[in-house]
Design a protein that fits this description.
60 residues, alpha+beta, three-stranded antiparallel sheet, 1 helix, 13% helix, 17% strand
Amino acid sequence: MKYCDLTCEHARWPDKLADGSKTCRTFIALYCEKLDMLVDKNGTCKVDWDKDDEGESSDQ
């Protein structure tokens, strides 16, 4: 299972006001370029969920 953090190749800092933290170190969301949306920082990878839904196996 993968988790969403800044080590992911698709993760980027959110826009300054996107998650209310003004990009300080307490931010709670990341922008996922693959999904084109904000996702929960340190949450389970939603890209892997999409792979599972399509019948493909996810990396573990």
